[in-house]
Specification:
single chain; 333 residues; mainly beta; five-stranded antiparallel β-sheet; 29 strands; globular
């Protein structure tokens, strides 16, 4: 009996917030490194953000108007910001500020203490955020069906500068960091809408063929390739970022909402609500190979790749007796 008791005591001492085994299929691109429970969130999540310097992560819960602030080193929730806009989060490292979208505008918080600094009113529903650090401008997706736009905010002054009109509501969008374009998924128009953010005007409309319901998007600026995640059918389209021509199409999991590109590992990663992370390996600019899906709980479709931490993070909603979680994955060697 004594040896059995000793074994049980050792098992009890293992921290529950660290995953010690990874039962993903052979050949999978990712390995589960850590699981952090977030019992304070009981509803769905949305777009996420990371403060890499402090190793903090922000998990949005729009239905509950909460943001869970997670300490990645300690593997626990530091605090929960309550009664806050929570459609999407974006951390501005150079200004050391957190931005949250929702409630008709953008609210800015100081990075150290997360105290409110100010708000930019936009009116109507707002969603995804993207930041141009060179110009210190924050770009915001305005979801008004009658007046869909990308709003441009001077992040330093916290002032609305302009709004760029769109043909339909924006979903995912991505900035060209070595150029002036914004690539916007506008599924209501069945296209990728290309904007010139310096001229603040429409540059091109790329109609999609072979797949529709384009939601997440990512960019490989070096190879001029645009990655477009579609839901009907569930697939990844690879477009020439200069012409809009479709270069490749790869089957993925369904209900994708967030997507990241890891240029070091040459991996495109899609968080899919059907219960998988789909991983596509970039062989070269024109050739792509689907790797085995990584299994996740259903409904886990919000994710973020933090390049400074070399980690892919996935928000897992509360289900049954299992609390919400933040899962950390690393690329396998």
């Amino acid at each position: 009996m004594k040896p059995q008791i000793a074994i049980c005591m050792m098992l009890v001492l293992v921290p529950l917030d660290y995953t010690l085994a990874d039962d993903q299929p052979s050949g999978a691109a990712l390995s589960l490194a850590q699981t952090i429970p977030i019992p304070q969130i009981t509803g769905g999540t949305n777009h996420l953000a990371a403060d890499a310097r402090r190793q903090r992560f922000f998990v949005t819960a729009p239905g509950e108007k909460k943001v869970a602030v997670v300490d990645l080193k300690a593997a626990k929730v530091l605090q929960v910001m309550s009664d806050v806009p929570a459609s999407a989060a974006c951390f501005l490292p150079d200004l050391d500020q957190l931005c949250l979208s929702g409630n008709g505008g953008i609210v800015f918080y100081d990075g150290a203490g997360l105290k409110m600094l100010g708000k930019v009113e936009l009116g109507g529903a707002v969603d995804e955020l993207q930041y141009d650090q060179k110009e210190k401008r924050l770009y915001v997706g305005l979801m008004d069906a009658q007046k869909p736009e990308i709003a441009v905010i001077d992040a330093s002054a916290r002032k609305l500068l302009a709004s760029i009109k769109l043909p339909a509501k924006p979903q995912g969008f991505v900035l060209e960091l070595d150029g002036s374009r914004i690539f916007v998924n506008t599924p209501g128009a069945g296209q990728v809408t290309v904007l010139d953010r310096r001229k603040q005007s429409l540059e091109a409309s790329w109609k999609l063929s072979g797949a529709q319901s384009n939601y997440p998007i990512a960019l490989d600026g070096k190879n001029h390739r645009l990655f477009v995640g579609c839901r009907r059918p569930a697939s990844l389209l690879v477009l020439d970022a200069d012409t809009g021509k479709t270069i490749a199409s790869v089957e993925t999991g369904g209900d994708a909402d967030d997507m990241s590109f890891d240029p070091a590992a040459k991996l495109i990663l899609l968080a899919c609500g059907t219960g998988v992370i789909s991983s596509i390996q970039q062989l070269d600019a024109d050739h792509y190979r689907k790797l085995p899906d990584v299994s996740t709980p259903e409904g886990a479709r919000n994710s973020l790749f933090a390049p400074e931490l070399e980690t892919f993070y996935l928000a897992v909603p509360h289900h049954g007796d299992t609390p919400a979680q933040l899962r950390a994955y690393r690329a396998r060697d």
